Amino acid sequence: MRFTLPASLSSLEDSPYNFTPYPEDFDEDAEGGDRENEFERLVTDVTAVIGQSASPLSQPDSSKPCAYAQTNDCPHRILHQNLYTLIRKFTSLSPSLQSTTLTLLRSTIQDEVKSIEASDDFIPSASYAKLGLLMYWLSTIMSSSENAYKLSKSSDKSTSTSSNFQTMELLSNTFTTSSSKLWTRSVRDENYVMCPCRLSFQSVENRHRKNPITKKIALKIISNTVKGGNCEATVVAGLVDLMCSCDNAASEVALVCKLTGSESFGNEILRDVINSCRNGSGKGEISAVNFLPHLAGVQGNLIVKNWSLIMPLLGRDVYQFRSAVCECIGVVCGGKIEEEEEEEVVEDEEPQEEEEENEEPKDDRPNREKTVEQLLDVLTQRGHDQSSFTRTSVLKSFKTLFPNLPVSRFQPVTELAIDRLKDKTVIVRRNAMILLKGCLEENPFSGSLDPQPYEKKFKELTQWFEDNELESATAAKKVARLQKEEEERERAEISEEEAERNRQEIEHAIKTLEGYMEEEQSDSEENLARQAERAAKTKALEFTASALSFISSLESTNESLSLMLLSKSMSDVTEALRFFVRAKEFGLPCAVSGMRKALSLIFSNEKSIQEHVLTAFSEVFLSVPGTSGKTLLEPKQIAHNLIVLCGESSMSERTSIEEALRQIVSKETIPNEVFLILWSVASKATGPARSAAMLVLSMASSADASIVDSSSRLRHLCESGFGSYVETRKDYSVARSAARALMKVGRIEPGNEAKRMIGEDIIEGLCAVIRGDWIDDNVDGADTTRKWFGAAEDSINALFSFASEPDFHASEMIKSMSMSTFSEDETSPLRLARFLFVLGHVAIKLLLYTEQLTKELKKANSTKTVVKQEAADKKNREKKEGEDSDDDAIEAELGVAQEQEAVTEQMMADIAEKEIVGRGLLGVFGPIVIRVVADETGEFGDNLLKQCAMLALCKFSCISNAFCTKNLPLILTSLENNTDSDTTLRANTVVALGDIAFRFPNTFEPYTPYLYKNLRDGSDRVKRHAMMVLTHLILNDMIKVKGQVCEVAMLIVSDDTSLNDMSRLLFNELSKRSNNPVYNLIPDVVGQMSINDAVKKSDFNAIMTFLLGFITKERQSDGLVDKLVKRFETAASIKVKRDLTFCIATLKVTEKAVKILNDSFKLYKDALFDEEIFGFFMSILKKGKSFATSNMKQVVDELEKKIVEENSAGSENHDAANKAERAKQKAAKRQANKIERKKALAKKKQELEDIEEEEDFIEFNPNKKERGGEEGTGEAGNEEDVENIQANDGGVFGAVGGGEGKKERRGYGGRSKKSRIPA
């Protein structure tokens, strides 16, 4: 009788097992220590029985019907009964007894297994049954342990657990290797074989990440179960179920497939997983589908063979399926698809013929490469999947392909990574950047990607192919040309002789081509060498072209990286900066240009971003590539990098570079040798390098003034920036850089005679630049003057910061310029433009200088007052108590000080208001500025002159309120009159108006609409300046946000990206304020845009969707619904009502909003006939139903019923009204046509009567012969007269009478013409 595994442990107490809970001599009533002693006695008895023989189960009593049903006095029966009791109460045993029991159980099983392996005969059923009983007991204990671990989630790395699994592995191996001894015809009992396997399933589910030893043994048990045969289907079902229930079991199942080495087993699991994914998309299927990439790593051929089954998963809606397939493709292609295993040779197979044995093995590499290409095509397409997780999986899969990615795939993969840099999801952009850096690092071209060597090589190869063109190619071109000419001649119909001559020429050319081709295909050494050289050149050309294409793709990333630098995500910014650093290591030009843009982040509010920017700046421009900033470059190279950086940068970029250099110099990162080299370049170099070096020095002096502020260096600066080199070459860029450096020095302190003398020379050089002494208007054109403007501006700034008496020098300079400007009868427009520019900028600097003096004076007075107060306090402490006369004196003195300070402030204000552009020197030239701007006579038509005059007038207006009040209308009038002619003038004026509004907000307030009006200018540049100015004024509360803000809102959908961004930024900043002004602006914006026909529907929807997104509070949302609903009553058109309904539908729907719509139903019911409006209201009700309470649901249902009824009735009424209106229009048209016809008939009749009256007065001529006929016939009359009448007014009579002209005229009036002629 074979042992049958019971359903539960307690089933062993039933027939046929017949075990009892306790042995007969066991004291069941014992408690505490006595009960523990009873269990120890059972263990002792078991140990004694086992010790009687090496294998107590190896010699069973086969005479009994069953080994476990023996008599009670049998030692084996005592052993089994005691073990059953110990196992039944296993959890109640002490740890030591548990360990001893397990040890006894394992040793007993091991001894029984050894006896089975040692035996050569078939195992008796009794031994087989005892082995099954012991295995069942051990599996029961292990299963209980696994369940306890699953509940506790604790780490179990005990030795006993590993030993238990080792015993189970021993049993599994025995069932596999000794199946012929255990089972008839080697057909294994599934109950026995699957017992260790099920325990392994539990272990994989619970412990596979905690105990690697247990995991390894469990996987071996499962693989042994599969290798033994006839249980494969059960194991497959168990593993698939395990993957569905356990998220992390897929990798272990793949390892089982690898351990079994059976392709059919892995194929069965793969098919089951795919079938489950086809039929469902739950959590279990999502966990199971992760098996695909793990299987691809161990048996990639299975994935390729079953690709037709896997491919449909890419069409599923569950993104996890698509992601798993993409990962699977990456693993398969990364492993290059391992070659298929060799087929097993069947012994009975007949020997093949010698020819087949001698055949060379078939090369399957082309097929594998083709498969890889197809799979990579699929993977590339999935790079644009709708799910960001799938797109991320694609990018990660491509990253794993390095360095095995085919060379032909580098360009497509690079382009995919660049394209995904614009993805809307952060995780996709991050992985795209990682992939792009991988493409850069693993590129197959070289360590340097500087495009110049490749471009040079490409030109050389192209020229070589042009110079060494094949003779056959030249002959082929000639044949093609002759054939084309032949076709043209055939259309021209030439003679047969000429046609024959042409055919002979073509035949000769073809024979020549064939001869060249035969010669080139010959096997001569010379020809083979030529072919080899051409093949090598062709490969080199293809390689160079691929490298240039790859470099071009990387260079095109600047736009995407610029957007990433502006991202709110920290990872985007850091990844972009790291790419610039890595690109610099490969010599890509985009590293420098990208870092110039990235330096604007140096002003970020986040400290970490500033640190990343400085680190990247140091690694790109100061450090040796690849050293992470630890090793600096040579000083000469650092100087060169900084000169190139500043020389190619814009004005905005230079501000960021200066801040970066300031922080780096303050940390003393740059060696002093670098500045010595820069001074040498600034003194000796020519061209842009000279000005760039001077500019770098000026930037560095922001952190360390000693770089410029010394006698020797000031002398170098004077000679380099204002010396003969600049004067001769008129290189105002060098003078400008020198002036910027002087601004960092400050005023020369008295007492330093050397510096004072150098300072006089420097001031003279600054004045020479400002006066424009080196410009000859007869020789130099407007371009030189344009270059002078920047140098003059910075020179004036340097003059007011460096000179001790800048007002005196400015006065002398203006007097000198006025004399030279107006000394001639005809003033040069360029010279006058320079003079007006200096006037305007000097005026602004005088204002700033006055304010600076005021601050210094207040500071001095404050210091003096503090000193007096301290002295008085000290004096009072020395005096006796009760004497307070000095306190009164101090208070009186302090009052005088405050009064004096107020007088000083008023005096300085009067200087700014009345002196600078009023009674002062600059005020003398104010009328000239006004006259040039007004240009009433039209004599000031030069654009540059107009720009300078307008700029000077605006600067004058920023100084004096009275001057501004008087001349602001002139500025606005000139701005309006200059609509198309000069964009620069309008752009500059808009910026100046912003300054005026900031300084005198009350004066400018009535003219605010003129500033908004510039948002409709035809130039994007003017609109950008206007938007920038308005943003600055609104956010600083200098102008009120009124209805004109609709002009700003319309720029949200502008094609210009900068305008779009600035308008969105303005509303975003407004929404952050406590009162949320956007809420108050929306009704006016909706009203103005609804009546504006120029606003498209799509634009309106986009604008309002953006603005309404700032309404997050329910109270504000309900208030807007109330305001917008009330506007239905005054809406003039159905378009306005549609726009109002769209806004209401876009807002958040609340209970109060639904009540408002229900109470205000009469206001909008007349518009419900429109299907678009009806659809909006139905969407509102749908949202309301999703959160409506029981009471609210009644209101929603009632409102829905009314809306539906009104829509039906309104649609019918609207259709009827339209039909009636069309009928009315047709009737009115018919009536109008009838009246017109009557008028035309009356008019023709009147014309006929007038003609007949004229005939009555025709003079009678007796010499003319009348036509015959009786009087009553009406045939008398002059035929010629009748013909003349018809000629003059043809068709009149026909139109009136409708018949022939003669008869109708004869019968008209009832009498003949003859009777009407007077005698």
UniProtKB/TrEMBL annotation:
<dbReference type="InterPro" id="IPR026971">
    <property type="entry name" value="CND1/NCAPD3"/>
</dbReference>
<dbReference type="GO" id="GO:0005634">
    <property type="term" value="C:nucleus"/>
</dbReference>
<feature type="region of interest" description="Disordered">
    <location>
        <begin position="868"/>
        <end position="888"/>
    </location>
</feature>
<keyword id="KW-0226">DNA condensation</keyword>
<dbReference type="GO" id="GO:0010032">
    <property type="term" value="P:meiotic chromosome condensation"/>
</dbReference>
<feature type="region of interest" description="Disordered">
    <location>
        <begin position="1"/>
        <end position="35"/>
    </location>
</feature>
<keyword id="KW-0131">Cell cycle</keyword>
<dbReference type="GO" id="GO:0042393">
    <property type="term" value="F:histone binding"/>
</dbReference>
<dbReference type="InterPro" id="IPR016024">
    <property type="entry name" value="ARM-type_fold"/>
</dbReference>
<feature type="compositionally biased region" description="Acidic residues">
    <location>
        <begin position="1249"/>
        <end position="1258"/>
    </location>
</feature>
<keyword id="KW-0539">Nucleus</keyword>
<dbReference type="GO" id="GO:0007076">
    <property type="term" value="P:mitotic chromosome condensation"/>
</dbReference>
<keyword id="KW-0498">Mitosis</keyword>
<feature type="compositionally biased region" description="Basic and acidic residues">
    <location>
        <begin position="1212"/>
        <end position="1224"/>
    </location>
</feature>
<comment type="similarity">
    <text>Belongs to the CND1 (condensin subunit 1) family.</text>
</comment>
<feature type="compositionally biased region" description="Acidic residues">
    <location>
        <begin position="340"/>
        <end position="361"/>
    </location>
</feature>
<feature type="region of interest" description="Disordered">
    <location>
        <begin position="340"/>
        <end position="369"/>
    </location>
</feature>
<feature type="compositionally biased region" description="Basic and acidic residues">
    <location>
        <begin position="1233"/>
        <end position="1248"/>
    </location>
</feature>
<dbReference type="GO" id="GO:0051301">
    <property type="term" value="P:cell division"/>
</dbReference>
<keyword id="KW-0175">Coiled coil</keyword>
<keyword id="KW-0158">Chromosome</keyword>
<dbReference type="Pfam" id="PF12717">
    <property type="entry name" value="Cnd1"/>
</dbReference>
<comment type="function">
    <text>Regulatory subunit of the condensin complex, a complex required for conversion of interphase chromatin into mitotic-like condense chromosomes. The condensin complex probably introduces positive supercoils into relaxed DNA in the presence of type I topoisomerases and converts nicked DNA into positive knotted forms in the presence of type II topoisomerases.</text>
</comment>
<feature type="region of interest" description="Disordered">
    <location>
        <begin position="1206"/>
        <end position="1319"/>
    </location>
</feature>
<protein>
    <recommendedName>
        <fullName>Condensin complex subunit 1 C-terminal domain-containing protein</fullName>
    </recommendedName>
</protein>
<dbReference type="InterPro" id="IPR011989">
    <property type="entry name" value="ARM-like"/>
</dbReference>
<keyword id="KW-0132">Cell division</keyword>
<dbReference type="GO" id="GO:0000796">
    <property type="term" value="C:condensin complex"/>
</dbReference>
<feature type="coiled-coil region">
    <location>
        <begin position="470"/>
        <end position="519"/>
    </location>
</feature>
<dbReference type="InterPro" id="IPR007673">
    <property type="entry name" value="Condensin_cplx_su1"/>
</dbReference>
<feature type="compositionally biased region" description="Basic and acidic residues">
    <location>
        <begin position="870"/>
        <end position="882"/>
    </location>
</feature>
<feature type="domain" description="Condensin complex subunit 1 C-terminal">
    <location>
        <begin position="985"/>
        <end position="1144"/>
    </location>
</feature>
<dbReference type="GO" id="GO:0000779">
    <property type="term" value="C:condensed chromosome, centromeric region"/>
</dbReference>
<dbReference type="InterPro" id="IPR032682">
    <property type="entry name" value="Cnd1_C"/>
</dbReference>
